[in-house]
Amino acid sequence: MKRTKIADLFADASALIGQEVCVKGWVRTHRGNKYVQFVALNDGSTIKNIQIVFDMNAFTDEQLKPLTTGAACHVDGLLVESQGKGQTIEIQAKALEIYGTADPEAYPLQKKGHSLEFLREIAHLRPRTNTFSAVLRVRSALAFAIHSYFQQRGFYYLNTPLITASDCEGAGAMFQVTTMDLNNIPRTEEGAVDYSTDFFGKPTALTVSGQLEGELGATALGAIYTFGPTFRAENSNTPRHLAEFWMIEPEVAFIDINENMDLAEDFLKHCIRYALDNCRDDIEFLSEHYDKNLIGRLESVVNEEFVRLTYTEGIRILEESGHKFEFPVRWGVDLQSEHERFLVEKHFKRPVILTGYPKEIKAFYMKLNDDGKTVRAMDVLFPAIGEIIGGSEREESYEKLMGRIEELDIPMKDMWWYLDTRRFGTVPHSGFGLGFERLVLFVTGMTNIRDVIPFPRTPKSAEF
Ligand code: 4AD
Ligand code: MG
């Protein structure tokens, strides 16, 4: 018999009741007595388990004994309306095949709830829990929503390199890529590392952002987006930073900072609405177990207009708030998470897009405002998250961009190809980067970024 996924059993229940079905999955619980036994089976297609009812006239104890939590099996049986409360349908088992047992003494995921910290230590098994299967299904749905948003609007998916010789954000937090023997590093006569003998013949690293190559795509195809892994060797052990995370970076020719903000707001709302419409069971489960306000918060972000505000205005609000911040605020400082969250959660009670940051705290490629002090940067700040998107209008003037590159002493010989966009047919253009895990954090209501990516990479941790 052909297997039916458990999600489809529930979705098509009215048509399938009274029919023989075949299900395959992993045992969540097993209970009962010598007359009747119940197994809750889950196959990952939905948060819901299907209850399998074993009439002990037809099965022996010996046969059912291996069905402990975590064991995998295949059941054929009759789909019926459930007698018991708590479920709508169940299967009256006719045949059982056991694929793999899971020794209860050794299998770490027993019935009781485990802490998220413990589950991080067994990240290879945690997708089998309700929480992680829900998070991973939402994550997958959001990835689909992102691709379909851009594809429906004429953006082309551009794959930018993961190995690069340029530091897009200029923060120097890059992981080196080399095939050199670290125990025997080749040196030049002056004693410096001789990269000419390395694989690429020069220093290379994992990319922190695909933006620079994204700009090459946008100034040819009009509108592109990237969606890929990025790497940052910053030693930030926070619930919002990963050393390896996924970023979505749209880049669009002929749009300015205001249209860029429109795009970011519309895009975020689309993704969250998609999850609310398509991941209802999972979001309800997460809301019930982790964050009672989750659905309300998601709906309010979808329905409310984001506040747009300059950095200078934002600093004024923070200064006048009288609130005692751990990091003091004054014009010129980079905003900390506590400042961002004060503006969003306490002051406006809505997402905020901050623009016009001091040029000193932003990257070299951002367009300078007429005041000569601020740049057309934009950060989208979200409740519970802080910065979820960072972006800007780009400096399209060759002279001004060169000015910034010289001011910041960025090595020119690595940048010649980027500068060519400004030498040949330069246009106004803008883009931004969305941290995928920050979006998944927001939509699932989880509070630690390590719990929304299957296998997190953080300082001193690269297990699995
Ligand atoms: O603000 P960032 O550094 O911007 C850029 O990389 C630009 N090149 C984007 C662009 O304009 N195309 O990073 C963008 C977003 C942040 O807003 C945040 O959501 C996320 O990426 N992010 C991280 N997420 C997880 N772990 C980290 N270490 C992150 N660093 C940034
Ligand atoms: Mg940023």
Task: Give a structural overview.
With about 475 residues, the chain is α+β, with helices and mostly antiparallel strands. The protein starts with 5 loop residues before the first helix and ends in a 20-residue tail after the last helix. It has an eight-stranded mixed β-sheet, with helices on both faces. It has a five-stranded mixed beta barrel with strand order 1-2-3-5-4. The protein has helices spanning about 5-10, 15, 60-65, 115-120, 130-150, 210-220, 255-280, 280-290, 295-305, 310-320, 335-350, 400-405, 415-425, 435-445, and strands at about 20-30, 35-40, 50-55, 70-80, 90-100, 155, 165, 175, 205, 225-230, 245-255, 305-310, 350-360, 375-380, 385-395, 430-435. Helix 5 packs across helix 8. Bound molecules: 4-amino-1,4-dioxobutan-2-aminium adenosine-5'-monophosphate and magnesium ion. 4-amino-1,4-dioxobutan-2-aminium adenosine-5'-monophosphate (4AD) binds near residues 247 and 392.
Short overview:
With 464 residues, the protein is of the alpha+beta class. Helices cover 31% and strands 24% of the residues. The chain has helices at 6-11, 13-16, 61-64, 116-121, 130-152, 211-221, 257-278, 280-290, 294-303, 311-320, 337-348, 398-407, 416-423, 436-444; strands spanning 20-32, 36-42, 50-55, 72-81, 89-100, 156-157, 163-164, 176-177, 204-206, 223-231, 244-253, 307-310, 352-358, 374-382, 386-393, 429-435.
